[in-house]
Amino acid sequence: MEIWINPACSKCRSALTLLDAEGADYTVRRYLEDVPTEDEIREVLGRLGLEPWDVTRTPEPAAKELGLKDWPRDEGARDRWITALAEHPELIQRPIITADDGTAVVGRTEEAVRDALSR
Q: Which UniProt keywords are listed (predicted)?
């Protein structure tokens, strides 16, 4: 199990606390420092079953600078979104937990983190 975190994020810290309390075996990836490649983002999106716009933090200043709210949300724009996430990792929703069964969840709630633990 791997968890992508921003240590400054309270949701990330809560997820780590729960993983520790449950004795989970996991690896931490500080994705703002160890930035995922476009291929890694594609893989995680596949594991999540989501599109890049579904995991984009649109209130972030970088999203506003890029004008993401006006970008199309379709297959033709998918690569453009993925490139933006790779170039601006602060736009990636957090925390993302990749479960041992090959799936992933966005662990913003205790229920989502428990779901990842159960897989």
A: Oxidoreductase
Tell me the per-residue pLDDT of 73-86, one tens digit each, with 9 for 90 and over. Answer: 999 999 999 999 99
For position 68, what pLDDT does the model report?
96
Of the residues 2, 3, 4, 9, only one is catalytic, namely: 9
For residue 60, being part of any structural domain is answered with: no
Residue 49 lies in a domain: no
**Looking at the 3D structure of the chain, how many domains does it have?**
1
103: domain range? 1-31+94-119
Q: Does the pTM of the predicted model rise above 0.85?
A: yes
Q: Is 99 exposed, middle or buried (0-12, 13-18, 19+ CB in 10 A)?
A: middle
Catalytic residue check, 9: yes
